[in-house]
């Protein structure tokens, strides 16, 4: 059945509260992550929605621990503190394996600082694959240190940094530390680098590991220079420790024993065909039958989160009067700060919070109050098809998770007291899962990373990596960089390439921005790329209200397509009182009437306001880079569309397609036949030539983020001349 058909069917089903809910039984089992001995059965599904009075009484969660310092002392890792510090002191590289929640991420950096391993003024950097983890961990550890964030403990994530002169412990994304290599190739300010959640094997972690190996060689003395040695600690709860140890010349492996609180695991008795429905049933079984505690549900993506959110609210309204309130809180990468506050903030008395999250909540973080985890066993995975028709494109498909992910998910329960994890898949399915996710370097586009490496004088193919990337993915990245003008025909980095790398943007967007210099439209292109670099689409996919959303947005629609439509929306938002070019002015209007008017405006136009606000902060940072790179951020062409489209086309030259006589579009630099995505303002238009932000493959190849360009542009795009060369 098609995705759309399935969606429709589930929606129909969820709109009938009396639907049969009788296939959600779970059985308790033990696996590597569970050492609880609870006799409490898993939630038993009923044949009707919950009717009986829900209760939020029962055994209290773990006894409150009086002080934060006492909590620290009770963590399993605390018992081995001295021995652990001694091992790290004695070894250049330590691989540290310990159960989820044992205290690795929050405690190890503090132990090392307190033991003097960072010297008098050196830094301890702790990398995380995800920004939300870096932000929340910095907040927690700052609290434990009794100092504000930006004091002893700070953080650095893309487009946001809070560190001061006195910062000694820095939580950061793996990508940020990678960027620091550009200015400081030996990471000389760091005495210790802790690579946390290394099992995730993100591309950035892998590149960082390769660089750390290089840096160790230089700083730790093969060349005799041992004045500023570096220590590296690799950590995870679910790691192939031997592999990491081998990579670092048989590094010492240290195990932290024990976990603070048990997590009891329940598996579904039979496989679930509709995981959103199964999650809905399981949530209400918990809500009705189980003692207090918040619930964390893992789902693949935003669409499922929104669908489950609506379904839970529908059922919650049917609970008897006086039943505990249900508070649904979505959690995905694109959330703005104030929403994060709702996730991590205290649940009101008598209510039960239900956090609906993607895998951004899977590792490292502690969400206070969460006692129950529901795991659908699914995640969205981005995969770059390098050898595909069309020269490669990203796919974003829902897939089964790996065992390591399942164990990490279970580990989000049981952090403040005993926890429970309900897997919506069978124990056999769990055992059949791959042990760990495939390293990202084997499945992702490499152009951006390759450009950064070239700026460091490194060649991806010569780097000593844990797993070497696919040859086709490497040549696809090289081709992209060459067509964008970042490389010359000898594969050497050009001035343009260096300038592109200065921007924390994917190469095509950086190229478009640089092209705006000559064309005098930097102000407009900044507006556009800032939105495209944000972590979610600007326009909300309104689902059933699609008709209404199209109508509401009609006034922004630009005949040239999605990019200028997006620009119109940014300008319209600015006119309501925020989001425009002048960040300072908008900050002043942040409070009060302006703020609520903007929110209302965004809601009425089905525009994602947090994206606009995120884009505004991205823009402010890009303006800083523009100044350094000699671009005038105020240069504007007003309403003149052509210069803006031409600048964009410089970045998206590889993403161009021409109209064929049969009404389809065919790539200019590839063989693929593409369709314009139905969400595009260009969906029903037939224009001679288009550029697009990306191709996505669902059941066919769709171009998303589409603009019409004059065919005459092709003559002036360097990429086409280069292709011919
Ligand atoms: N924000 C927080 N609020 C309350 N308790 C917290 C918070 N962060 C951490 N803790 C407590 O500290 C414990 C250890 O957390 P930490 O992140 O250091 O563990 P970890 O071993 O790194 O786990 P993981 O492998 O899951 O990342 C948690 O189980 C929890 O009890």
From TrEMBL:
<dbReference type="Pfam" id="PF00270">
    <property type="entry name" value="DEAD"/>
</dbReference>
<feature type="domain" description="Helicase C-terminal">
    <location>
        <begin position="279"/>
        <end position="457"/>
    </location>
</feature>
<keyword id="KW-0378">Hydrolase</keyword>
<dbReference type="GO" id="GO:0003725">
    <property type="term" value="F:double-stranded RNA binding"/>
</dbReference>
<dbReference type="InterPro" id="IPR048333">
    <property type="entry name" value="HA2_WH"/>
</dbReference>
<dbReference type="InterPro" id="IPR007502">
    <property type="entry name" value="Helicase-assoc_dom"/>
</dbReference>
<dbReference type="Pfam" id="PF21010">
    <property type="entry name" value="HA2_C"/>
</dbReference>
<dbReference type="Pfam" id="PF00271">
    <property type="entry name" value="Helicase_C"/>
</dbReference>
<feature type="compositionally biased region" description="Low complexity">
    <location>
        <begin position="7"/>
        <end position="18"/>
    </location>
</feature>
<feature type="compositionally biased region" description="Polar residues">
    <location>
        <begin position="19"/>
        <end position="36"/>
    </location>
</feature>
<dbReference type="GO" id="GO:0016787">
    <property type="term" value="F:hydrolase activity"/>
</dbReference>
<dbReference type="GO" id="GO:0003724">
    <property type="term" value="F:RNA helicase activity"/>
</dbReference>
<dbReference type="InterPro" id="IPR011545">
    <property type="entry name" value="DEAD/DEAH_box_helicase_dom"/>
</dbReference>
<dbReference type="Pfam" id="PF04408">
    <property type="entry name" value="WHD_HA2"/>
</dbReference>
<dbReference type="InterPro" id="IPR011709">
    <property type="entry name" value="DEAD-box_helicase_OB_fold"/>
</dbReference>
<feature type="region of interest" description="Disordered">
    <location>
        <begin position="1"/>
        <end position="69"/>
    </location>
</feature>
<dbReference type="InterPro" id="IPR014001">
    <property type="entry name" value="Helicase_ATP-bd"/>
</dbReference>
<keyword id="KW-0067">ATP-binding</keyword>
<protein>
    <recommendedName>
        <fullName>RNA helicase</fullName>
        <ecNumber>3.6.4.13</ecNumber>
    </recommendedName>
</protein>
<dbReference type="InterPro" id="IPR001650">
    <property type="entry name" value="Helicase_C-like"/>
</dbReference>
<dbReference type="Pfam" id="PF07717">
    <property type="entry name" value="OB_NTP_bind"/>
</dbReference>
<comment type="similarity">
    <text>Belongs to the DEAD box helicase family. DEAH subfamily.</text>
</comment>
<dbReference type="GO" id="GO:0005730">
    <property type="term" value="C:nucleolus"/>
</dbReference>
<keyword id="KW-0347">Helicase</keyword>
<keyword id="KW-0547">Nucleotide-binding</keyword>
<dbReference type="InterPro" id="IPR027417">
    <property type="entry name" value="P-loop_NTPase"/>
</dbReference>
<feature type="domain" description="Helicase ATP-binding">
    <location>
        <begin position="85"/>
        <end position="257"/>
    </location>
</feature>
<dbReference type="GO" id="GO:0045943">
    <property type="term" value="P:positive regulation of transcription by RNA polymerase I"/>
</dbReference>
<dbReference type="GO" id="GO:0005524">
    <property type="term" value="F:ATP binding"/>
</dbReference>
